[in-house]
Amino acid sequence: MIQKLFIALISIIVVSSITACDRLNMYDIASRKSRTAYALIFNGTTYRLAIAHPEYDKIYTSNFVFSAGSEGVSANNLTIIVYDSTNTYISNNDLTSWLVYAAYPASTNVIGYHDNFICRESTSSLSILHDSMAGWVSVPLGLSSIQGIFNGYDGEVYVFDTGSNYSFYRFNGTGVELMQSFQSTPPTSGTYLGGFRTKNYFYVWYNGGNDSIFRTNGSVDINYNDTTAWSNVVDVAITDDDKMYAIIFVSGTYNLLHIKGPMDFTTVLFLGTTGTFKIDCLDSKHIIVAAYGNTDGYNGLFIYNVESKKIEKFITAEDAIALYVHR
Q1: Which of left, alpha, beta for 218 (phi over 0: left; psi -120 to 50: alpha)?
Q2: Which residue of 34, 110, 208, 316 pairs with 300 in a disulfide if CB–CB is 3.0 to 4.6 A?
Q3: How confident is the model at residue 33 (pLDDT cuts 50, 70, 90)?
Q4: Contact yes or no for 200/179 (Cβ under 8 A)
Q5: What mean pLDDT comes out for the span 33-60?
């Protein structure tokens, strides 16, 4: 009981510090007009936590060194966590120090879900971290081929399973309910990367070339790149109003594309020839890009305005090794 009260107090202090420290004034966060991104920055020696928004950004230098490998960051309604190959850590009130919270998660894709955190544990179960410091707890779902989990525009968590059907389920905290299925089996290429749900569609994407980005509304399926010459789909971001942006590797370069329809796309930004990238949407016109190991292009963390077609805010050029946008 004391531990739970202690963690709850820390969470309240963290939220209070974000909203009060330096009068952050994170523009319209409560109204969700634009989302907030959390990124883990590493320059080879020091870790830093970046909090980014179209109208505000701040970086907190950490006095803590995480174990190398699988570093990630996530946030829920109360708490920010970082995880590495050894442990899951909770932020202290100053956002510069961290406490051991639990063992390391089973997956590097950890989603904040209400006051908890969730990740894929196996092909049949998820793992959930409550605020009680009890550690990651297995939640069997009765599915056979869970590829991964992802957020929706509504802040819910969805499960993509390729068992008897390629289907999407909503996680309700203890189990799942079927939402939609593909009418035909997508000819997927590569390894599952992620997905998203809007009011109208479910999306899923893989890291292959051809046949790796799909959309369905349960009656009509769309393959966005059945004849593309792309070498690799790196990551995809979907806005709530169904605009699609993707980082694609083709002909030795990484590019940010606006994908308007099947084989209908426009290159909006050249990113470089090396590096590792992550992308997400903050609102209908702002995309956040995280990159590390990029030696000849845009490395670090920046916000791109797709309407004005320019980088609106460059937050840091140091390696951004993890990115999470809370919904």
Answers
A1: left
A2: 316
A3: low
A4: no
A5: 93
